[in-house]
Amino acid sequence: MKTKKCPMCGGRIKIYYDHEAGDEVYCEECEREFQLISLTPIRLDLVERYEDHNYRVNEY
To answer: What is the CATH number for 14?
Structure first.
């Protein structure tokens, strides 16, 4: 297992030996998800999730 420092909070991201490029990993501290771009060197890309909060539109 390897670890990578989270670019957002400085926490620890665990990267196991069976992970491959394209897999998603997460930070233990801030719980943000990242996609593995490459393993050598380890490069990550932030996975942004947009949730639909069902905002109400004012009806007049």
So the answer is: 2.20.28.160
